[in-house]
Amino acid sequence: MKEFWVWIEPYDKKLVTTALESGATAIVVPDEKRAEEVKKLARTRVISPKGDLKLGEEVVYVKIEGKEDEEKAAKYPPNVKVIVETTDWTVIPLENLIAQREELYAVVKNAHEAEVALQTLERGVKGVVLKTQDINEIKRVGRLIEESEEKLPLVTVKVTRILPLGLGDRVCVDTTSLMVRGEGMLVGNSSGGMFLVHAETEENPYVAARPFRVNAGAVHMYVRVPGNRTKYLCELSAGDQVMVYNYKGEGRVVYVGRSKVERRPMLLIEAKYENRKLSCILQNAETIRLTKPDGTPISVAELKEGDEVLGYIEEAGRHFGMKVEESIIEK
């Protein structure tokens, strides 16, 4: 997840409040006397000379005006978070520093500069530090961060097998966000092949819509979380972050409000993409849906062999949720 810091100088309570409401993950307050005022507004991370992260020690600021400044920024220890502010030649110093540092943050003045910083060398900086007195610009950058979390190349897979199973333990993930038609979570028996399980946005004669919920499937399955990582569904608990994707592959971070494990009848679904097989085990109920290529949900109760749904394919192999390069066979 990209970080969104807002630099408040001079201090303005309204700017701080807007930053917090726009999803800022930290507030930078060079005036250490004001740090406590920020803490009174909300429980948030404050970066200040005597803050949660100490400005000048754990976090350093470097203005890039020449090659020597770039070299200075690159030489800090890896655990130090480096904020860089460039003059009028923004991209090249960022490219050089992104290649050398993980903990790199770029000062930006608006949403356009934030977008450039987040996309430079494809990987982008770890976070942006917005310096502005414009409330609307804070809101724009907040939306940009939320909407540009991740883009995955989803593929169309063809269902090859549907097999009712006996009872099993499934995980219902309730989030603190509302989802819309075409959105859901990527889950699968293997990290190398996952299905887009649709959120419960649809009403039916028996159950009201639950647009905050994804009935995600069996406890053993993988689910994608931020940072190109996975977790087992049974590991999710309140406060955890999990990725939600729409049918275009655009992902955003949401937070788990509740994770319910309940015993239910289950269903094995297998599909193929070219020569690759993928599978998942979902609850056998009308309200559980996969996602068609156009974003339309399709219930597993109506699913047939030959139907096309959305999936995600990558090389299998995870160790404690992180992608690894090794020979792994999952069946």
TrEMBL record:
Its EC number is 1.4.1.-. The keyword NAD applies. GO terms for molecular function: 3-dehydroquinate synthase activity; NAD binding; oxidoreductase activity, acting on the CH-NH2 group of donors, NAD or NADP as acceptor. GO terms for biological process: amino acid biosynthetic process; aromatic amino acid family biosynthetic process. This is 3-dehydroquinate synthase homolog. Pfam families: DHQS, DHQS_2nd. It comes from the Bacteria. Residues 1-144 form the 3-dehydroquinate synthase N-terminal domain. Residues 157-331 form the 3-dehydroquinate synthase C-terminal domain. The keyword Oxidoreductase applies. InterPro entries: DHQS, DHQS/DOIS_N, DHQS_C. Belongs to the archaeal-type DHQ synthase family. Keywords: Amino-acid biosynthesis, Aromatic amino acid biosynthesis, NAD, Oxidoreductase.
